[in-house]
Amino acid sequence: MAEFFIRHADATQILLFAGAISLLWAIEHLVISLPEGEKLRHTGVNALFALTALPIELVLSAACLAVSRETLDHGLGLVNLFPDPSSVWVRDALMFVALDLFDYLYHRLMHHVPPLWRFHLVHHTDQHVDSSTTVREHPGETAIRSAALVVWTFLLGASFEVLLMRQAAETVFAILAHSALRMPPGVARVMGFLFVTPNLHHVHHHNVLPYTDSNFGGVFSVWDRLFGTFAELEAEDTVFGLDTHMEPTTVGDFGSLVAMPFAQPITGASGKSEPTNPSLAGAASALG
Ligand SMILES: [Zn+2]
Ligand SMILES: [Zn+2]
């Protein structure tokens, strides 16, 4: 059984991804009512990004596997410096955590380097965050993210099994993080101590700074706590989108979104405006 999933890793991941998003999407829309036309238009735009991502993901995941095999064959990578190389479980767990840290750093870079932000902001322009937002990623960012993973795999010497585990965990957490349905506060607090929850990732999708630049974590929320980028915000105070890109016809049009990195005007260092609400400005200094 496990052998079958490993041999058909790409197909398994795609099916897992599509199945989980569809199921959650159906539940979300039973609970949260959006006008039918708007719901379909929104999901349609995001689904188109899944189609553009697919060929890029397939090519670069094959590159990732080839790099993983080479580094393993030649005993390369930071994994060889880990303290307990004799225990496979400890080594795999450390590799998993290291890959998640790389993911956190990658996400911060996407926000803070202006040319990268131009691509990443497309994900943030969604004004109705739900499970379909998970796949709303500009193809340029899909290429950058997948290429970064090839580099991490080489630097770390990550094994195929860990890459697969990490990919599966990232998929589950990414879908969960974008769920329109928040967790009950008590459950979210306990789970959010270690892991990313929808309640925490919704803060990242709030339309003004400093919240847009908080909660960068993929699977673990501990990186945000450690590096001072952790923030919380109640549902009623959360407004999805980007204050610099709130024009509904532009952010709801696939062609405009694909053109956005090449056309959008840049305000400030990263294209994000400064907080205008005094209470948010106070939070900005609190976040550091
Ligand atoms: Zn982001
Ligand atoms: Zn997101």
- Strand-pairing-aware structural class: mainly alpha
Which range does the strand content fall in? under 5%
Number of domains: 1
Rg: 19 Å
What summary fits the major beta sheet?
none
Count of helix runs? 13
Give a description of the structure.
This protein has 13 helices and no strands. The radius of gyration is 19 Å and the shape is globular. It has 288 residues and is mainly alpha-helical. Helix 3 runs parallel beside helix 6 (139-156), helix 4 (88-112) crosses helix 5 (114-124) and helix 4 packs across helix 7. The chain has one domain. Bound molecules: zinc ion (2 copies). Residues 107, 111, 120, 124, 204 line the site of one zinc ion.
Explain briefly what this protein structure is:
This protein is an all-alpha fold and 288 residues long. It is built from 13 helices and no strands. The chain has one domain (2-287).
Draw up the topology in text.
Blueprint: H1 2-7, H2 9-31, H3 36-73, H4 88-112, H5 114-124, H6 139-156, H7 160-177, H8 185-192, H9 198-204, H10 222-226, H11 248-251, H12 254-263, H13 278-287
Helix pairs in contact: 2-7, 3-6, 4-5, 4-6, 4-7, 5-12
This protein binds zinc ion (2 copies).
